[in-house]
Amino acid sequence: MADLLSGLRPGESWHGEGVLHLPGFADAPVLWDALQPVLAAAPFRHLVTPGCKTMSVSMTNCGEVGWVSDRTGYRYDALDPLSGRTWPDMPDVFRMVARRAAAAFGAPDFSPDACLINCYEVGSRLTAHQDRDEQDLGQPVVSVSLGLPGRFVIGGAQRAGPKQAVLLEHGDALVFGRSARLAYHGVLPVKAGTHEMTGPRRISLTFRKAG
Predict the structure, then answer these.
(1) Can you give the three-state secondary structure of 181-202, one letter per residue?
(2) CATH code for position 37
(3) What is the dihedral of CA 79, 189, 187, 168, to 10 degrees?
């Protein structure tokens, strides 16, 4: 831990063992430009949970596989269920920022094959959950935020219990893994506002090694 902390830049911080916040880490305009052809090929959609509830957050994917949800369960799939085609390729700049953030966390070999792209309209939220659909839970999860700020909350391995909130702003990256890999986490309802790049929305790019 001491070695990792000594390599942080001003403004970077650990929020408990296994969670690293990197303020202003990403070149947001470059990521935003690279995102547009992805959205043209695989637009945002609201998925349905196995309990038949429609998620308030709309989402899409790029990469070798994409995370999907329907009445049959949660899973990764190589095909977009809306189009029946493979997901758009992950832009090189996406992969590069994910690898750089993972390296800052101490995972230089991280090589994401999936990027889940979430779109939060004002009031949208992500309830507390674990990321456990990946084959290798030793790999970290990397998230990059664009647009309106959002409060990311993370706790422990049980749904109930104390949680801490991290304010994620435009261009911030957050990495969690190790003892926090199966921590319950979510996003509080996004507050009203308008961002010059994304409008009244928050976009998150979440990178995982699924296979």
Answers:
(1) CCCCEEECCCCCCCECCCECEE
(2) 2.60.120.590
(3) 110
